[in-house]
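Batch job 17 of 40 flagged for manual review because the log was empty.
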Amino acid sequence: MQKLLIILLLFISTLTFAQTDQTFTYENKIYQPNIKTVLCYNSSKEQSIPVIQLNSSETITLSFDDLLAGTKNYWYTIEHCTSDWQPSR
């Protein structure tokens, strides 16, 4: 009985913390429904596209609104792409 309870608790915990399998696409897309108003631009030109000169002191600003309350950690990756939005590897 105790083994069954441990297996059941382990199974429930994996379901609770499982993440949805989301396929990444190179398009203008927000992956989480609670994230709104995503802005990404050249820091010196707020209405610009997020393009900077390589090896320059220019920076890119990324900002967004999270509609859920609380403090959270977020991770992101910036990937260099070609002019037709393909990864430049």
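Reviewer: the log was empty due to a logging misconfiguration, but the result itself is present. Residues 23-89 form one domain. Unflagging and moving on to job 18.
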